[in-house]
Batch of 3 targets.
Target 1
Amino acid sequence: MRVVNFGSLNIDYVYRVDHFVQPGETMSAQSLQIQCGGKGLNQSVALARAGVETWHAGRIGPEGRFLKETLDRAGVHTRFVEETAGSTGHAIIQVDSTGQNSILLHDGANGRLTPDFVTAVLDQFSAGDTVLLQNETSCVEEIIRQAARRGMRTAMNAAPANEKLEGLPLEALSWLLVNEVEGAFLAGTEAPEAILDTLAARYPETTVVLTLGEQGAAAARGTQRARVPARETAVVDTTAAGDTFTGYFLRRALEGGTLEEALSLAAAASALAVSRPGAADAVPGYEEVLRTL
Ligand code: RIB
């Protein structure tokens, strides 16, 4: 199980607030924490903590060196994390009193991935390996097309939902993971069953995974369907819940588990992640997740 993750690396500025700041409002935050984040980094940490041999490929600026060190400490291979001139990606995250978040992104070095970089990284892998990506870096289409040409399996967490998703060759993916917002954006419909039916019909060779927050998670491949409920937990911070889910889902899927098994493991891991503050810091370890099943 070797995974190379072309992933964003962000410095997260996390502000605890009573409510999200409103248009025209000036408000003081209750606290500020500066943490490691980025959907890509969080997903690499989740994969590594789930026991998958993981390489992270991405770019940072000089002030983001601690992000690479965090990946190192988590056991992620970082020889493809490159330092470039210019700023590191960052996120301004408000977390309200119910644990929900609101995120403003600045791409920084995540927007400086180039086709040559993608080629140089993928040259180090082969058809039996898996590529993971999200929608927070440049070169998303290039990564999907190159991975497909090389016969590699590809998983994409299509987050965040924005116009960059339009026109991507998503039919080339082995796994497409979305939440309700991303699923509705891609499918053009809102009911969970309709999202799954639409995307499974449009991408018949792809396993489509839909996370539904308190409603659990569901998956579809062709006419096959699976669904698991959410696990009961006290929500502290939902940041990186989807990233944790992605890493743990892939772990079980890559070792040949059924859709139900992969969804159950992922749901248990993300329930632990939301019960604690932070993004990468909140991702649980594999044994801890197994103990809750
Ligand atoms: O999914 C959570 C992540 O989204 C945060 O860590 C933030 O950096 C944004 O990328």
Target 2
Amino acid sequence: MNTPSPQKMAATVPDETAVSDARQAARDAQSVDALRETLSSFEGCNLRFGARSTVFADGNPQSDIMFIGEAPGRDEDRQGLPFVGRAGQLLDKMLAAIDLDRTGCYITNMIPWRPPGNRSPTPLEIELCRPFIERHVELVEPKIVVFLGNVSTKALLGTTRGILSLRGTWSEYRPNNDTTLPALPTLHPAYLLRNPAQKKLSWQDFLSIRDRLDRISA
Ligand code: URA
């Protein structure tokens, strides 16, 4: 369980200071392991105090592809790993359908702590977590990025357009001024569990991912 230090609980840190602390902490991390450590001890985002785990990532950081979801749910919070509940099981099936598993891809979330009751993260929580996911992408250096659902798509592509209009179209993601990565927004597996008829759209997106990966390794 993440527990706050007494000093942090007592202090009220202004939002801009908290965001700039997050940026500095993320920038200082020089490896994926260091970033994991930094996030585990970061106390600038209140979400961590209601969560059991800091859910960092799963899969292979050497792989060409990085999936970025929204935030851990109950199962992920309990196990400390992303996408291990029902949505994660569906994601695993979708990956298997294009010959991928967790040894051949890397999976993380926009937000590493479970929001209480699985509510949507607030704009401030997203801003506090953004420096960490940007640094995470920089350090992993994937060849392509896939955004699972609205939250990571909107936050990282900087758009207000919804996932249903953006999905399936490759776009460019810039984790910093020197890097541009091909990025595909697609539907979140939890949305597909609620709307199974939309799986055909995801299938198109996953075929497009397979095609990109094949072209990268050709
Ligand atoms: N939904 C997400 O976005 N991420 C998880 O890890 C689990 C469910």
Target 3
Amino acid sequence: MDTHIKRLHDMREQALLGGGEERIAKQHDKGKLTARERMHFLFDKGEYEEIGMMVTHRSTDFGMERQKILGDGVITGYGEVNGRLVFAYAQDFTVFGGSLSETHAEKICKIMEMAMKNGAPIVGLNDSGGARIQEGVKSLGGYADIFYRNTLASGVVPQISAVMGPCAGGAVYSPAITDFILMVEDSSYMFVTGPNVVKTVTNEEVSAEDLGGASAHSRKSGVTHLTAPHDLACIEQIRQLLSYIPQNCEEVTPQQDYIAGDELRPELDKLVPASAQQPYDIKHAITAIADHQSFMEIHPDYADNIVVGFARIAGRSIGIVANQPMSLAGVLDVESSKKAARFVRFCDCFQIPLLVLVDVPGFLPGTDQEWNAIITNGAKLLFAFSEATVPRISVITRKAYGGAYDVMNSKHIGADLNFAWPTAEIAVMGAKGASEIIFRKEIKEAQDQTAKLLEKEAEYTEKFAHPYRAAERGFIDEVIEPRYTRAKLIKAFKMLENKDDQLPYKKHSNIPL
Ligand code: HXC
């Protein structure tokens, strides 16, 4: 018996060494953790159950039959994160550069299937040289098997991808299908074709970092949602992100302990400046409304004219979408519409109620926007809100103009409760623009055209630049003093806790992609 157990112990020890001490030291020298260290920090108390530790590849080409490493370059397993079940895999760069073989892919697929059957999130920690070059098409098949399962799992269980090293070629498409991508600054990159191919095809000279580093994808392409300065910070962000999200599409959002206190926020009464042209930071409203320090912003470096993220209200998670007057006056454009639409879709998949803070002057005009399909992209947000059946509440803080009023979770597209602050202006457009159009003739004929415009502007403001016309019609359910917003929202989300709403039967909808 002892010899049997010794054999097991020896094999385990061998597996734990991965590609060997030298390669582990190389990984550490690059400031990176090993795959097992990453798994250790992901799970509560560093505890997880590993599956498939003894798996090896089946390749016999290029002398590969003499190079078998237990585990075949990926650690797969399950454990608890914040006390809840999570499945994860971590690619081991010390084993054939974390490259993906047929068996490596099978291990990932197995863990994904287990996650789906058991209704728990999947976390992928990616660090890989891509397809295992010695295996050729078997490895490509392995990738496709993963993409297929990523797609089947989408909307069933949350999927989070961290890119913690190279991620190139078709390998980027697994993270791209998942719900959130995180990247580690200076040690990770993602691109479909690397700098060498780019140079050959387009003659552009670009570094891997500039082409597909964390900064490029968090600021320019919007591919990554969050970045972190190092591996540990990245893993901490994953743990935090998971804390807001239900385990699967049939669960409700997690409830954290919450002791009711003073819910009044008098500082909100002074948040909106007297002049409609003056900006203010909508994040002040978010932090005042949400539970203390509960706001986690997603996509902070991309399209910052809209803010999206998770927070808690009375202990329960919500998703927040808010126009940001500090950036481009909070206007909706191509990027902000896509960013918000994707976030709304995620929240709706996983039963996370939505709070929408509205201060929007409209859609951004211009050839750049029109030719980059603001029509299709703006429609994404409109569609995403219209289709969302989760509890949905809006608070209009200031402007809600034109089509953007409709799009930003208006009553007409299915919002459950629509509040407005007394500073809200719900109209087709701003008073100046409106007066210039509808009173053009009168203004032109006036002796003092400037005075006439101001007079007409004041008339229009008096008539429309307030929330009461919309409240008269029931488009606004209640005009509230800003200081009571949090208290109102606590009651409103509680009232909506058991909301049950269904879309008409269909195979699936056809969101304008
Ligand atoms: C097999 C690989 C490998 C791969 C790296 N290694 N990539 N083995 N298949 N794809 C091995 C190396 O031989 C080396 O082994 C070890 O991993 C570490 O690699 P280094 O090159 O020493 O590391 P580093 O200098 O950090 O460079 C990392 C790298 C580079 C930039 C990732 O290794 C690289 O360019 N690899 C090839 C990338 C690639 O072209 N992949 C195919 C992409 S196409 P030893 O034994 O020396 O430690 C693709 C298609 C997917 O992925 C399509 C899906 C639809």
